[in-house]
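Q: Could you fold this chain for me?
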Amino acid sequence: MGLRFLFARLREARQQFESEGDGGRKGAFTALAATWMFFVLFDGPRAESLQIPILRLQDALASLDQNLVLPILERVRRPGRARSSVVQASLRGLAAGTVRRLMQTDLDAPEAYRAVATVLTRRGVKAERGSGKITADTVRHWCVDELPADVGRHGPAAWMYDSMFTADEDRKFSSLPPTQARLRALASLDGWVKAMSPSTKRKTT
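A: Sure. Below is the predicted structure, expressed as structure tokens.
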């Protein structure tokens, strides 16, 4: 019952995220509400008030409509180079995982790097460093240098990468012919990037 409620609200949130024309704010608000409401269905989390941080974030998001920026959303100024966002880091992990999937279909590494770079460039993704252009060498760096450096698997890039290679996902992927498997891997990457870019068009009345 609780999971049906959660999934129904998250589906609603996803639809809002893609169609409301507010940069995804209403969808995020609904998703946060669904999450903390799901938590309080259970005695343990409710007794420990585990929903409070999520509720506070939801409140801060709603306050933006009144031109109020609560402390949880205030910009933090730090010296030096800015850290990657969770979305950007997750994208790098997904790109590296897609390269691995493509290589499992007998593409060599340079071909896989180029294929992933082509998808990201077509979707308008920019590199955080240098000229901003995503190249095969950019993707190679993510795969060969950046991802292996997270030995403890603590960051979002590693989490995303590892989530792609569960036993169930491996079984599904290995059951496909190579050409179909390549198309699926690239389509999954393309779909994720598209989903992370909500519509910003204003609704007309």
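A (continued): The two ends are 37 Å apart (CA to CA).
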